[in-house]
């Protein structure tokens, strides 16, 4: 009796939708950032890491839009730079950056390590370009 129940519960849990828009770091403008990203229909998932005056935005582009990845990345970069001129904004549609940003959120990094990791990710993205 309990085995079928466990199987059904595990299947339902596996089908649950994962978070599509994650904002980590200072929560000062979390809903505003989420709204800006949701306005863009080509963004499938995103992770935003805010720290002091830095903002790292890692996005996954929807499959049919991937061939325009660079153009869409620049469009999102410009949009966030106009909205937050006093912040150092970095947008990346690279999966490696997205994966590492999610890893930062999962590991709940301390503030002193967070700044170093953001710098490291920016350098990684420039290397791959």
Q: In whole angstroms, how far apart are the ends?
A: 55 Å
Number of helices: 5
Order of helix and strand elements from N to C terminus: HEHEEHEHH
Any idea what the radius of gyration is? 17 Å
Share of β-strand residues: 15-25%
Strand order of the largest sheet: 1-2-3-4
Number of DSSP E strands: 4
Tell me what the structure shows:
The chain is α/β, with parallel strands linked by helices and 129 residues long. The chain is 53% helix and 21% strand. It has helices spanning 2-15, 30-38, 69-83, 95-107, 111-128, and strands spanning 21-25, 43-51, 54-61, 88-92. It has a 4-stranded mixed β-sheet, sandwiched between helices. Helix 4 packs antiparallel against helix 5. The longest helix is centred in the C-terminal third of the chain and has 18 residues, at 111-128. The chain is globular, with a radius of gyration of 17 Å.
Concise account of the structure shown:
The chain is an alpha/beta fold and 129 residues long. It is 53% helix and 21% strand.
């Amino acid at each position: 009796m309990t085995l079928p129940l466990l199987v059904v519960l595990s299947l339902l849990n596996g089908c649950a939708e994962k978070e599509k828009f994650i904002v980590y770091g200072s929560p000062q403008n979390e809903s505003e950032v989420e709204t800006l990203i949701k306005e863009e229909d080509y963004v499938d998932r995103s992770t935003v890491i805010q720290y002091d005056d830095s903002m790292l935005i890692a996005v996954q582009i929807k499959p049919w839009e991937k061939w325009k990845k660079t153009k869409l990345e620049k469009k999102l970069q410009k949009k966030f730079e106009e909205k937050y001129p006093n912040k150092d904004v970095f947008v990346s549609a690279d999966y490696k950056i997205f994966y590492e940003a999610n890893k930062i959120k999962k590991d709940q990094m301390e503030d002193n390590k967070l700044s170093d990791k953001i710098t490291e990710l920016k350098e990684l993205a420039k290397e791959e370009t």
